[in-house]
Amino acid sequence: MAIDFTLAPEHEEIRKRVRAFIQGTVMPAMEDLKEGDRDQYLRTIFHLRSLAKAEGLWLPHMPKEWGGMGLGHVELAMVQSEAAKTRIGPWVLNCQAPDEGNMHTLLHWATDEQKEKYLRPLLDGTQMSCFAMTEPEVAGSDPTLIRTQAVQDGDEWIINGHKWFISNARRASFAILIARTEPDVPEGSRGANTAFLVDLPNPGWNDVREVETMHGSTGHSEIVIKDLRVPDSAVLGGRGNGHRLGQYRLGPARLAHCMRWISQAETALDMMVDRALKRYSHGSLLAEKQGIQWLIADSAMELYQCKLMVLHAASKIDKGEDFRTEVSMAKHFVAGSLNRIIDRAIQVHGALGYSTDTPLASMFQHARWARFADGADEIHQMRIAERTIAAYQATGSTSSATGGLPL
């Protein structure tokens, strides 16, 4: 049988090294920080990044010829899940969103000159980036409706529009900006948009505010773009390819989110069990009560499903197969499971879980974002249904739409 859920010895060694580094170096360093001391925070982060480079744990998702570890998506799953045991872990290894997805995008779509100017600093960790697609006036789940306009003026483009929830914008040295360039293409068509590389700061790029969310102001900016000029050489991936580029970027990026969410869900389940084993009430430990056991059992089963779905979708990406349905399923299911498992952990902790004395409250606030980031639940459900119906119409069976597995 070709099915094997064990890691090769060399990859198991990498997993152990990442775990040891995150739990033995990163977590203690973050715990020692003084609250509110931003200078110390930044010094600590950059020191940890230098240690990650020295340990050979830098850029796990990038090819070795570009300074990375050269891991496939299956191997990346175990690195991301270990790194995300602490929120800062992926950033320390330089495999955090949105830079991770932008690195993949630049590697695949950029010219040699663009790679040297934009990709190389991201890989070195000397710059950060953002991806500017979502707009307040139209549904973020349908990028064919984008209204930001780019009009060619000689060897330049003039861009006007409105973006929001642009993560990392205030820290970014450049943006990958999606704008409509083909006015004659009917609305809803996929060939109307083009991607541009925009150096920041820029007089035409006006950062209005950080949008306040459930978990505070954490870098999701609203941007007004007014007569922003970029040269024709700033086009990324060719004119009219903005939709294709965006979908190329979002596929693996969705799965990378799932890898990190699995880690958060597992942390919540660990906390749930630990609490149940220590809390005594009404004649017995919580762990001995059937109602609590059901919460633990449901969470364990869901986490098992999450891990299998992510590993299978990652294996399809590594094999070069069509992974769209599997990634959609994983993204939808893992995001929902993350919310449910953390919610159960809060319930088992009672008022303590609702307080900020444990990380659960913050984890729950961040988890709610997962159900619409990189495609809302309902959009993924729609696409999954469409592909399932199409599979049956083409073959008389839905098998290919449920993983194409030998069962």
From TrEMBL:
Residues 130-227 form the Acyl-CoA oxidase/dehydrogenase middle domain. GO terms for molecular function: acyl-CoA dehydrogenase activity; flavin adenine dinucleotide binding. InterPro entries: Acyl-CoA_dehydrogenase, Acyl-CoA_Oxase/DH_mid-dom, Acyl-CoA_Oxase/DH_mid-dom_sf, AcylCo_DH-like_C, AcylCo_DH/oxidase_C, AcylCoA_DH/ox_N, AcylCoA_DH/ox_N_sf, AcylCoA_DH/oxidase_NM_dom_sf. Pfam families: Acyl-CoA_dh_1, Acyl-CoA_dh_M, Acyl-CoA_dh_N. Residues 9-125 form the Acyl-CoA dehydrogenase/oxidase N-terminal domain. Its cofactor is FAD. Belongs to the acyl-CoA dehydrogenase family. This is Acyl-CoA dehydrogenase.
